[in-house]
Amino acid sequence: MEPALPQYTRAQLALRNGQDRPEIWVAYQGLIYDVGRSRLWRNGQHYQHWAGQDLTPEMAEAPHTPNVFDRFEVVGRLKK
């Protein structure tokens, strides 16, 4: 059985923006991913997207599929 993932509020996620704290996290469909090792997320920004946010609504217009998150570690769940 998998261990339960920690849950984070939107306010806690917002602090993981690459500016306020060194972590660079984003949420997608309720899961939180650590994207800090990606050169495309340096300084917490990826094109017009900012870390520390839920990117679910923005993915529909992304030039890639949601499978892009498969390469990143899931570090938690976004509290509803």
Question: Could you outline the blueprint of secondary structure elements for this entry?
Answer:
Blueprint: E1 7-8, H1 10-15, E2 25-28, E3 31-34, E4 45-46, E5 49-50, E6 73-78
Parallel strand pairs: 1-6
Antiparallel strand pairs: 2-3, 3-6, 4-5
Characterization of this structure:
This protein has 80 residues and is mainly beta. The protein has a domain at 8-51 and 68-74. The protein is 8% helix and 25% strand. It contains one helix and six strands, in the order βαβββββ. The strands form two sheets. The protein has a four-stranded mixed beta sheet. The longest helix is centred in the first third of the chain and has 6 residues, at 10-15. The protein is globular and about 30 Å long.
Straight-line distance between termini: 23 Å
Helix content: under 10%
What's the β-strand tally?
Answer: 6
Rg for CA atoms? 12 Å
Q: Please tally the helical runs, counting DSSP H or I stretches of 4 or more residues.
A: 1
Uncertain stretches: none
- Strand sequence of the main sheet, in spatial order? 1-6-3-2
* Beta-strand percentage range: 25-35%
Element order: H for helix, E for strand: EHEEEEE
Largest sheet: 4 strands, mixed
Short description:
The chain is 8% helix and 25% strand.
Please tag this protein with its features.
single chain; 80 residues; mainly beta; two-stranded antiparallel sheet
